[in-house]
């Protein structure tokens, strides 16, 4: 059972009199749960996960880690009663991401000797297959949080290659940018820049269209050096950035929210052994976030 020790910590100016920030969120990793604004687990799923989304219909879309049941990983859509309404099992080494990209279509990536990105229909038919130009000596470190963009292309962070690439539907690389360390999350922002969380580098970078770093966050910017494996990240509508410190231990900071000026305004911690792999912020101060989640 998940028992958060400290759900929310506000770091704010007492003089401002501002109300504390609260968030509810979906957390994926060794344990999978939705937490309310008080840090209480209001839904759990009994499987280790790598990526996930709370859908408009209330169901939860998840990438499942490898297991005896799913030896190559899988994606599932489940109801809040944990009934599986869609399942697609991987065929290579592992499945590392998932995204709903249409009313009845899902996108995922497979890691293996033939790394690829797929779009599959509700009946499990492969509708799109995009080969990915990634190294194959360590398939676990091929890709992570790939996302389909509004222009129809795909943004793919490639860890060991230390690059974020944008592919078209035929697999052609139409844009790429090198990163200072292994990119786990890559988010195409509204201004055209790309935000990347760089895992073991313990940093986040925002890159412009030419691949130049225009914003960076490292442990040197924060008290206590709390970034321990920057994996999942999300840019909020107000411009703040939330990221996970995946290698954090029990009672250490799991999620951290910073402003553009690198001020910490919200954190989350708990007493679980395992960290949060990725997450989705669902609401702020009880209000659902507007628009598509940038994560």
Structure in words:
This protein is mainly beta. 0% of the residues lie in helices and 48% in strands. It has no helices and 26 strands. The protein has strands spanning 6-9, 23-29, 32-35, 41-45, 49-54, 60-64, 74-78, 84-89, 94-102, 105-111, 116-121, 126-131, 147-148, 154-158, 163-167, 173-178, 185-188, 194-197, 203-207, 213-218, 230-235, 241-245, 253-258, 264-269, 276-284, 287-288. The strands form six sheets. The chain has a five-stranded antiparallel β-sheet, with no helix packed on it. A five-stranded antiparallel β-sheet has the order 4-3-2-25-26, with no helix packed on it. The protein is globular, with a radius of gyration of 18 Å. It starts with 5 loop residues before the first strand and ends in a 7-residue tail after the last strand. Residues 1-17 have low confidence and may be disordered.
Mean pLDDT: 93
Strand order of the largest sheet: 1-24-23-22-21
Low-confidence stretches: 1-17
Question: Whole-Å distance between the termini?
Answer: 27 Å
Overall shape: globular
What's the total number of strands? 26
Relative helix content: under 10%
Work out the radius of gyration: 18 Å
Count of helical segments?
Answer: 0
Structural class call reads: mainly beta
Please outline the major beta sheet: 5 strands, antiparallel
Q: Helix-strand pattern, N to C?
A: EEEEEEEEEEEEEEEEEEEEEEEEEE
The fraction of residues assigned to DSSP E strands is: over 45%
Sequence-ordered SSE layout with sheet pairings:
Blueprint: E1 6-9, E2 23-29, E3 32-35, E4 41-45, E5 49-54, E6 60-64, E7 74-78, E8 84-89, E9 94-102, E10 105-111, E11 116-121, E12 126-131, E13 147-148, E14 154-158, E15 163-167, E16 173-178, E17 185-188, E18 194-197, E19 203-207, E20 213-218, E21 230-235, E22 241-245, E23 253-258, E24 264-269, E25 276-284, E26 287-288
Antiparallel strand pairs: 1-24, 2-3, 2-25, 3-4, 5-6, 6-7, 7-8, 9-10, 10-11, 11-12, 13-14, 14-15, 15-16, 17-18, 18-19, 19-20, 21-22, 22-23, 23-24, 25-26
């Amino acid at each position: 059972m998940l028992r958060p020790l400290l759900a929310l910590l506000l770091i704010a100016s007492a003089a401002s009199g501002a109300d504390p920030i609260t968030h509810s969120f979906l957390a994926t990793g060794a344990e999978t749960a939705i937490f309310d604004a008080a840090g209480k687990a209001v839904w759990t799923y009994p499987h280790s996960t790598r990526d996930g989304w709370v859908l408009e219909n209330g169901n939860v879309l998840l990438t499942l880690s490898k297991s005896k049941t799913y030896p190559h990983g899988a994606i599932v859509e489940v109801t809040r009663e944990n009934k599986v309404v869609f399942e697609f099992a991987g065929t290579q080494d592992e499945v590392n991401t998932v995204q709903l990209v249409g009313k009845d279509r899902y996108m995922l990536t497979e890691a293996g000797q033939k790394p690829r990105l797929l779009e599959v229909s509700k009946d499990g038919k492969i509708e799109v297959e995009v080969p990915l130009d990634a190294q194959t000596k360590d398939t676990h470190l091929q890709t992570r949080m790939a996302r389909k963009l509004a222009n129809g292309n795909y943004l793919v962070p490639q860890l060991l290659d230390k690059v974020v690439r944008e592919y078209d539907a035929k697999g052609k690389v139409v844009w790429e940018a090198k990163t200072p360390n292994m990119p786990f999350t890559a988010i195409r922002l509204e201004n055209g820049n790309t935000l990347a969380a760089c895992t073991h580098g313990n940093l986040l970078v925002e890159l412009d269209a030419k691949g130049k770093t225009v914003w960076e966050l490292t442990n040197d910017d924060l008290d206590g050096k709390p970034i321990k494996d920057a994996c999942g990240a999300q840019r909020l509508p107000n411009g703040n950035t939330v990221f996970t410190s995946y290698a954090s231990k029990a009672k250490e900071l799991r999620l951290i929210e910073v402003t553009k000026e690198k001020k910490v305004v919200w954190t989350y911690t708990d007493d679980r052994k395992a960290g949060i792999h990725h997450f989705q912020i669902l609401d702020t101060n009880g209000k659902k976030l507007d628009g598509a989640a940038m994560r």
